User: What shape does this take?
Amino acid sequence: METAATTSVRCVAVPRALTDMTDATFTPFRGLRFAAGLDTRTAPPYDVIDAGEAAALRAADDRNVVHIDLPVDVGDAGAAAAGGLTGTAEADESVRAAHRHAADLLETWVADGTLVVDAAPVFYLYCQGYRDTAGRMGQTTGVVGALRIGGSEVLPHEQTTKKASSDRLVSLEETRTNISMIYGLSLASGLGALLEPEGPPAVAVTDEDGVHHRLWEITSPARIAALTEVTASAPVVIADGHHRYTVAARYLDAMGDAAPVGADRIMTFVVPLDPDFLVVRPIHRVLNHLGVEAADVGARLAEIADVAEIDPGSLDTDAVPASITVLVPGAALRVTPRLRDADRAVLAAEPECLRSLAVVWLHKIALPHLGADQVVFHHSPEVVAQRVHVGAAPAGVLLPPVGVAEIAAVADAGERMPPKTTFFWPKARTGVVMRRFADQS
Assistant: This one.
């Protein structure tokens, strides 16, 4: 590990002493950032990069963050989540060796000035500018800080799927760094008023989807104190990154008293739970196996819903669906639930805040009615439609998005939505800032 004498430090105004933040929910931290070359050195989150994309990022720059976040010997995250890592001793050692090499790379980049450490703990204002599917300009704005692990003020918002294998714990053990940020939603009032940028951004990069990512350091002691106070006034709901949060908690618990300073928190992008500050898209379903023939899906659904057949050629897969659409070879079906007494009884067993959600009706009523027992999730309606069109799956389901008010209601009730209900977009860019435990105090 490098000593302080060999660590490059980015000079910023050092805030005057603040009140003790040890017990605060959300605090500033000393960030680790690329000194230059942002256009070729940041990357999408590890779990949305396939093998081809990872290889292209590695080839584009030997200092791209993928080299430490998704080491080449580990393979792509999609294969890992699908069980590509077998869990054998040989596979485990291969994963550990890859992340040990990643940790060495990280320290080399700090030592040679590729990465520099901010001189003082700060919050980071993070803005993502984009055009939506209708071509309208939009922006997601929030603040990046260190979220306390294990507090009652941190809530999940949806159930999680069990991953067959994961290298995230090994990554944390070896690098002792939050390489990517998780995504949290704040229920606090007044947070949005503290998210106005001042001056030029410290980081500006445009990704492959045309999203503009900009990062500002928040160094004002008064503003840091205000952000700390406001974020502590209401729960933070984990929107994206449940698995990384759980891994960080496991790591902290396993290390006990030997845990490094800073391991009790995780780098988090906190956004107000407000439609003016974020975009929520749905996650769709590919149905790989049905208990009925694909040609009979429409008639079967008509037993539990109103079904209208539409021309599949008129389906706009670039648009966010406004209703449930079931795709079968050669047809698209608009589906409106029509509850039978038996269906009402099934939904009555669910928390009240969940009963009206399309995704709940789908999983509790429609999928069992179709005998669908192999479901794959995908955020792209185009991919779902293509899988059905080429015969790779007998059916697919496009779901409408869950609204911000519905997310808030579920969080307020302390409940969780079904797995893979929400897709928060744009994704936070990995590499705009990192959080290394060795830099915290």
In short: The first helix runs from residue 38 to 41.
